[in-house]
UniProtKB/TrEMBL annotation:
A GO MF term: phosphotransferase activity, alcohol group as acceptor
Residue span, FAM20 C-terminal domain: 165-379
Official protein name in the record: Family with sequence similarity 20 member C, like
Record keyword ATP-binding present: yes
Required cofactor names: Mn(2+)
GO cellular component terms listed in the entry, alphabetical order: Golgi apparatus
Naturally occurring in which organism (per UniProt): Seriola lalandi dorsalis
Length: 402
């Protein structure tokens, strides 16, 4: 673990993770604090009185030092990222999620499995997903991909890259949802303690509306029907002509998401979201990673089809993936070190060693896929269209990445 921690520190000290970014203009911040609020502008939308039971007295002002971690997170969202790589606020935020007293809990409607929204004394909220399977339990080979339980540790591991028990003597409960909410699929403590993942909530939709985008490579979610991308080898050429994938960085942004899902083994990416304020020129929000890390002994090549069909990847992503394939920055080692910072690590490692080893194997598959694309393009006499040069000065870093 000491060696892995030093690799993690070395990785984040590398130039590829310390690229200088231009100052963010005012209009590219998702939310801003009003310097002053006139009495005539006050309304029922203001923060509720501190006299409410269980909530703290509010002492916030325009200084970020006065804000709780969840509010600093919300105010740090920009057009280009949800949070920076080395955001010092993340440690405080995860600590709050792990230790803060819970004021109230309500079930979140919708979805296939039980989820709760928990509120904290500082007015923060988080999404709760309970533990349903042991960490070492692999998805059954005979189980269809959208029939599996979601995994609380997959949400946590996905953030860092985020079994069925007897009910006797344990406190159990269940809620209302599409599939796994019944006495047969109850959530049970051991006997009263229950592991879970907690994901901090994004800004309320009344403050920052989001748009949901259907994935062009969405699965059919049918046992008998194939999606178009599964039958048309040239499917990507159609996608490239379709807004918003026909200009800007949306296609390579989506390929980044595809690579993340392949590394995690997540087949359940049917939609993604963006903040409407920023239009089409912004980063992608990939919410809900509960069906990731289900199998370590088998890779799912269909997840990588968009990369294979489009043969397009951004330069910065390609360089970082090559960096993570080197022994001194090995992905499994830095992931192990990163997960060791999570509060649940004291109970048991968030990912088993076979899952960590699978990350290295899958990373090599991604690099080999890009290499095949380059060879095929060279054979066809085309230019270097596989690598999308997203940052001109990264060209000088190719050598340092391997």
């Amino acid at each position: 673990m000491e060696s892995a921690l030093s690799k993690l520190e070395a990785l984040f000290d590398h130039p590829l993770y310390n690229m200088l970014s231009p100052p963010i203009p005012e209009e590219d911040w998702l939310l801003r604090v009003k310097p002053k609020v006139k009495a005539s502008e006050k309304s029922s939308q203001m923060w509720v009185s501190a006299s409410q039971d269980g909530y703290e007295d509010i002492q916030w002002n325009s200084s970020s030092n006065s804000h709780p971690p969840w509010l600093r997170f919300h105010l740090g969202i920009s057009r280009w990222q949800l949070y920076p790589h080395r955001d010092p606020n993340m440690e405080a935020l995860t600590q709050q999620l792990a230790t803060s007293r819970i004021v109230s809990t309500v079930q979140k409607s919708g979805g296939t499995q039980l989820k709760l929204v928990m509120s904290f004394p500082n007015y923060g909220q988080a999404m709760f997903k309970p533990m349903k399977q042991e960490r070492d339990d692999e998805t059954n080979y005979n189980l269809y991909y959208f029939s599996d339980f979601e995994r609380h540790n997959a949400e946590i591991a996905a953030f860092h890259l985020d079994s069925y028990s007897e009910h006797m003597g344990n406190v159990c409960f269940y809620g209302q949802c599409s599939y796994y909410c019944s006495t047969e699929h109850a959530v049970c403590g051991s006997p009263r303690d229950l592991e879970s993942s907690l994901a901090v909530m994004l800004p309320d939709l009344s403050l920052a509306t989001r748009r949901s985008w259907r994935s062009p490579w969405r699965r059919s979610y049918s046992r008998s029907k194939l999606a178009k991308w599964e039958t048309e080898s040239d499917y990507c050429s159609t996608v490239k002509k379709t807004p918003p994938y026909n200009k800007g960085t949306r296609l390579v942004d989506f390929i980044d998401l595809v690579i993340l899902d392949f590394l995690m083994g997540n087949m359940d990416r049917h939609h993604y979201e963006t903040f409407e304020k920023f239009g089409n020129n912004t980063f992608l929000l990939h919410l809900d990673n509960g069906r990731a890390f289900g199998r370590h002994s088998k890779d799912e090549p269909s997840i990588l089809v968009p990369l294979e069909q489009c043969c397009r990847i951004r330069l910065s992503t390609w360089l970082r993936l090559r960096l993570l394939s080197l022994p001194q920055y090995r992905l499994s080692d830095v992931m192990r070190a990163s997960l060791s910072h999570d509060p649940l690590h004291s109970v048991a490692p968030l990912l088993s060693e076979p899952h960590l080893a699978a990350l290295d194997r899958r990373l090599q598959t991604v690099l080999e896929t890009v290499s095949r694309c380059q060879k095929q393009q060279s054979k066809d006499g085309g230019g270097n269209e596989v690598i999308f040069d997203d940052t001109a000065h990264l060209k000088d870093m190719v050598t340092s990445a391997g």
